[in-house]
């Protein structure tokens, strides 16, 4: 991946292998003296029982420039929360575990509901949103980073490269999006990005014409990566999607709210692998099937807000154009994999393309049936305007959970 290509839309910061992780960490420690850096880890309790998260904590224990680590804990009972506190206690940095299922946090959810500010169904989007709210309420961080808790190839160098563009005060960037190749077990991975998002954006440009938003999304080498870092200033007005369109949603918000020169993508790893979702071909409510529908809906909604008119005919044309574009790209991926000694199961990948093609139309039907549906959790600016005490009360709720249960 070591090249120096720039696409002209967003800055691409490469890993040219001309500096060391230690040098980056030293600079970040200097920046952090005046620009505190926090990390958000959205986690299911089940991830505490896997192999990836313990290794991530081992790596994070070596990071000296982090001010605070905020862990959002989902799907945990009282005993599991107590275990999580012990599990994360090895971290030398200041850290907090937000028990999203605690009675106190559920009371916070209820207050939001009473205000008409529904925080969304349980999931990564809502977890991240509460972690962002907690971080903003602390009022002491200048930079916030986020990455997943199931990265089996994790290294603390990934975090250093992710936060450096927004932590360096001499850089103009407000948001840095991580990218990397997806290779594991002798296979080329990243199926949703390769087989859905890339050919879908190509097809949409052919069907509905040039759109700056489409060019913006196509500029990112891995638009579905779960790793990004931001300066704090834009966070209060960030609209977090509550479904599986989180990553596309964050990029959409960056395109809407930030100047192009304030967004960059940064190469953070030579290889990246994490937990793989099931396809769930017969169940559109879970797995890659649901993910594909939510991603499509997210893109359709964003284009609609900018004046694009959709119809049944457009979605039928989009399905056919996508299918041809995806098969063309599959030829490229097959050649790339073979030249690098990797394997692609063309039969399975063509079946996945067929599923995605059907789900493009399904997402279109959902959008046309309810075009006013809002999948976004309200911004923290709006929450603060509706109830100026809620963020402070959330800090107290988290602290009281610590005192009572630990």
Strand count, sense and closure of the main sheet? Answer: 8 strands, mixed
Return Rg in Å. 21 Å
Helices and strands, in N-to-C order?
A: EHEHEHEHHEHEEEHHEHEHHHHH
What percent of residues are in strands?
Answer: 5-15%
GO molecular function: glycosyltransferase activity
EC number: 2.4.1.266
Organism: Actibacterium naphthalenivorans
Keywords: Glycosyltransferase, Transferase
Structural notes for this entry:
- The protein is an alpha/beta fold.
- Helix content is 50%, strand content 12%.
- The chain contains 14 helices and 10 strands.
- It has an 8-stranded mixed sheet, with helices on both faces. A two-stranded antiparallel ribbon has the order 7-8.
- Strand 3 (66-74), helix 3 (78-88) and strand 4 (94-99) form a beta-alpha-beta unit.
- Helix 1 packs across helix 6 and helix 7 crosses helix 11.
- The N and C termini lie far apart (46 Å).
- The mean pLDDT is 93.
- It is an enzyme of class 2 (transferase).
- It comes from Actibacterium naphthalenivorans.
- This is Glucosyl-3-phosphoglycerate synthase.
- GO terms for molecular function: glycosyltransferase activity.
- Keywords: Glycosyltransferase, Transferase.
Key attributes of the depicted protein:
two-stranded antiparallel sheet, 406 residues, eight-stranded mixed sheet, 14 helices, 12% strand, 50% helix, alpha/beta
Topology:
Blueprint: E1 11-13, H1 21-31, E2 37-44, H2 52-60, E3 66-74, H3 78-88, E4 94-99, H4 103-114, H5 124-138, E5 143-146, H6 156-167, E6 175-179, E7 183-184, E8 187-188, H7 191-208, H8 212-218, E9 228-231, H9 246-257, E10 263-267, H10 287-305, H11 312-339, H12 346-369, H13 380-386, H14 390-405
Parallel strand pairs: 1-10, 2-3, 2-5, 3-4, 6-10
Antiparallel strand pairs: 5-9, 6-9, 7-8
GO molecular function: glycosyltransferase activity
InterPro entries: Nucleotide-diphossugar_trans (IPR029044)
Protein name: Glucosyl-3-phosphoglycerate synthase
């Amino acid at each position: 991946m070591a090249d120096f290509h720039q696409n002209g839309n967003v800055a691409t910061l490469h890993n040219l292998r001309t500096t060391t992780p230690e040098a980056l960490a030293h600079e970040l420690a200097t920046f952090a003296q005046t620009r505190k850096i926090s990390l958000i880890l959205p986690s299911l309790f089940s991830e505490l029982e896997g192999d990836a998260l313990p290794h991530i904590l081992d790596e994070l224990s070596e990071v000296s420039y982090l001010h605070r680590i905020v862990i959002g804990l989902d799907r945990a009972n009282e005993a599991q929360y107590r275990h999580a506190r012990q599990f994360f206690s090895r971290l030398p940095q200041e850290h907090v575990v937000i028990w999203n299922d605690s009675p106190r946090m559920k009371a916070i959810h209820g207050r939001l509901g009473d205000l008409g500010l529904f925080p969304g169904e349980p999931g990564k989007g809502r977890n991240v949103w509460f972690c962002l709210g907690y971080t903003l309420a602390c009022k002491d961080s200048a930079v916030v980073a986020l990455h997943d808790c199931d990265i089996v190839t994790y290294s603390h160098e990934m975090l250093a490269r992710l936060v450096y563009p927004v932590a360096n005060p001499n850089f103009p960037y407000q948001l840095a999006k991580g990218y990397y190749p997806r290779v594991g077990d002798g296979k080329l991975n990243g199926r949703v990005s390769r087989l859905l998002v890339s050919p879908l954006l190509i097809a949409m440009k052919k069907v509905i014409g040039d759109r700056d938003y489409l060019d913006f999304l196509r500029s990112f080498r891995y638009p579905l990566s779960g790793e990004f870092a931001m300066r704090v200033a834009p966070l209060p007005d960030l609209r977090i999607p509550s479904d599986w369109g989180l990553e596309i949603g964050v990029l959409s918000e960056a395109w809407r709210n930030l100047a192009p020169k304030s967004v960059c993508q940064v190469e953070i790893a030579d290889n990246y692998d994490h937990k793989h979702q099931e396809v769930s071909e017969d169940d559109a409510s879970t797995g890659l099937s649901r993910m594909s529908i939510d991603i499509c809906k997210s893109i359709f909604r964003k284009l609609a807000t900018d004046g694009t008119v959709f119809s049944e005919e457009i979605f039928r044309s989009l399905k056919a154009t996508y299918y041809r574009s995806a098969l063309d790209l599959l030829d490229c991926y097959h050649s790339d994999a073979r030249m690098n000694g990797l394997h692609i199961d063309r039969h399975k990948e063509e079946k996945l393309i067929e599923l995605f093609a059907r789900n493009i139309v399904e997402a279109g039907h959902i959008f046309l049936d309810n075009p006013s549906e809002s999948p976004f959790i309200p911004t923290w600016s709006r929450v603060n305007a509706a109830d100026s005490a809620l963020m402070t009360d959330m800090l107290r709720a988290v602290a009281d959970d610590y005192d009572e249960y630990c």
